[in-house]
Amino acid sequence: MDTSTLIWIIVGIAIVLAIVLVALLVTARGRRERRREHQHDRAEKLRADARETEIEAREHEAEAARARADAAAAAAEAEAARARAAEASVQSEKRAGTIDDHRSDAERLRAEQAETLRKADAVDPYVDTANERAHADDTVRPRDDTDVDAVSTTDAADGPVSRDGRTERG
């Protein structure tokens, strides 16, 4: 081969190498841009995922706050119910004490009434106390004066007075 051919081959190879080198430089810049674009897209996707995660975290926090509020409300309601129950228990005990007081007062008043009737019968000359004592075990004396006949008693100032309050003239 000739030297001129050899020089042309070397020049051709150098030109091809220069073209390849320029092509690589041009495409390398594009590849670098695409890689940077890809990295940027990936970073944006990660940011979007982070925002979604933040939103989910806030939703969970809000749900937890609602649950805490509901639990606090339920606890307050339960405490109020316990307070009402305690108050009702106190009222019940008061009323039970009042019932016992009323019952004992009623028994005391009945005993006083019976004693007063015995005294009245003892003072009354028209009442046969011996006969009533014999029948005291058989019958129970009525609790009110509506079933008792008007029996006369004497009033020192006005003369004879019946149990129903009318004066006897006779």
UniProtKB/TrEMBL annotation:
Where does the record place Basic and acidic residues bias? 36-69, 92-122, 130-145, 161-170
Keywords assigned by UniProt, alphabetized: Membrane, Transmembrane, Transmembrane helix
TM ranges: 6-26
Task: Return the Low complexity bias intervals.
Answer: 149-158
Can you tell which superkingdom this protein's organism belongs to?
Bacteria
Please give the residue ranges the record annotates as the region Disordered.
Answer: 32-170
Protein name per the record? Uncharacterized protein
Protein's organism: Microbacterium allomyrinae
